[in-house]
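Tokens as discussed.
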């Protein structure tokens, strides 16, 4: 990435040096973890070491970790009718959860105007549900709003159900302990925490038997067939180990930078609306809009200035569809089309924040000028 200011960490984080080293070493070593010879056993050791590192990050036993190709696959693996009769999904989940996994349909759980899951609505949904399986994310990838997962877990358990938590945006930013959250299933993704793209994990309560998606070999205790992505998994493990060690300091640093960013944004455009501003948010995420400014225009203009940001959802960068998250929060459609997401990471610098603010001031000035010209012409 040659960007001067990379402010799109919720789309993907920069690779941590530890992860890069682990990926390269595993690529160099080769070996199939299922082979019994030395090279195979060495590859197996890398996978099992990574399993320990990922397990430690979220406070579980290594046997509770199932490696997948990423967050999307882990979500699909979790949402199986073998684990419940009724699926309940919050309105702000990632599209990979909103697809319903292997369920034919699901019950929608609305959110408040602040972007947090409406627990009263969840309670009502659970009341009529047989063997419920609910999916509530730890923090939203667009707004950064932290969800009331522990309370949701209590409600779901009282109703005799299971809770799946898509925690992809959590580690490195907020505490992410599987048992404290009360999760039964939890999704993680390597590339959001500074690991490589294409690796992830589903964490499961020990008593849960997963219904595998990919059948074939006996890898991952028969739950996920296919030769393991050893370099990806090793890089994931190294990133997890680094995050577990340094996340508190990194989160505090990101929060300070984010506060500066938001203050600067407001100083340039006092009419800027920061979504979820009254809710508890990740320390690295700001989703905002300026009435009358189209996100597409702004993202392209900022890119020309060497500033990488996202419009709307990260995973749909490049296509202009209004955000389902903002729609669920009741944000008017014209404002949702202006939503720009800034997301910071462990190596974001003061300089990057300044570059963004400078580029933003320039953009705001030119938009102001062209609007004035239009007013004069009218
Ligand atoms: N869940 C959330 C909340 C995400 O933000 C993303 C990616 O943006 C995913 C799941 C999908 O993860 P992956 O890219 O590893 O498939």
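Sequence:
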């Amino acid at each position: 990435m040659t960007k001067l200011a990379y402010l799109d960490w919720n789309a993907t984080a920069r690779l941590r040096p530890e992860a890069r080293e682990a990926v390269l070493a595993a690529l160099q070593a080769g070996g199939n973890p299922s082979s019994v010879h030395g090279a195979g056993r060495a590859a197996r050791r890398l996978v099992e070491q990574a399993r320990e590192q990922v397990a430690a990050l979220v406070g579980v036993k290594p046997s509770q970790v199932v490696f997948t190709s990423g967050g999307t696959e882990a979500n699909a693996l979790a949402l199986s009718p073998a684990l419940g009769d009724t699926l309940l999904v919050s309105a702000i989940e990632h599209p990979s959860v909103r697809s319903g996994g292997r369920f034919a349909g699901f019950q929608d759980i609305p959110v408040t105007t602040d972007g947090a899951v409406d627990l009263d609505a969840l309670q009502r949904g659970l009341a009529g549900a047989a063997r419920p399986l609910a999916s509530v994310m730890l923090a939203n990838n667009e707004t950064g709003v932290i969800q009331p997962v522990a309370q949701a877990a209590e409600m779901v358990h009282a109703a005799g159900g299971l809770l799946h938590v898509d925690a992809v945006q959590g580690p490195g930013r907020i505490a992410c302990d599987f048992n404290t959250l009360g999760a039964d299933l939890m999704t993680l993704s390597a590339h959001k925490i500074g690991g490589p793209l294409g690796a992830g994990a589903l964490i499961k309560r020990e008593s849960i038997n997963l219904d595998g998606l990919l059948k074939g070999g006996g890898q991952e205790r028969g739950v996920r067939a296919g030769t393991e992505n050893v370099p990806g998994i090793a890089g994931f493990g190294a990133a997890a180990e680094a995050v577990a060690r340094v996340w508190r300091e990194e989160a505090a640093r990101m929060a300070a930078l984010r506060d500066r960013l938001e203050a600067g944004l407001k100083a340039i455009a006092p009419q800027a609306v920061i979504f979820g501003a009254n809710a508890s948010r990740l320390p690295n995420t700001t989703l905002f809009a300026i009435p009358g400014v189209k996100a597409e225009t702004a993202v392209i203009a900022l890119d020309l200035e060497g500033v990488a940001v996202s419009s709307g959802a990260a995973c749909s960068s490049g296509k202009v569809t209004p955000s389902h998250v903002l729609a669920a929060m009741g944000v008017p459609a014209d404002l949702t089309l202006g939503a720009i997401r800034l997301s910071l990471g462990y190596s974001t610098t003061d300089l990057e924040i300044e570059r963004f603010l400078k580029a933003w001031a320039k953009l705001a000035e030119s938009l102001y000028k062209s609007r004035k010209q239009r007013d004069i012409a009218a």
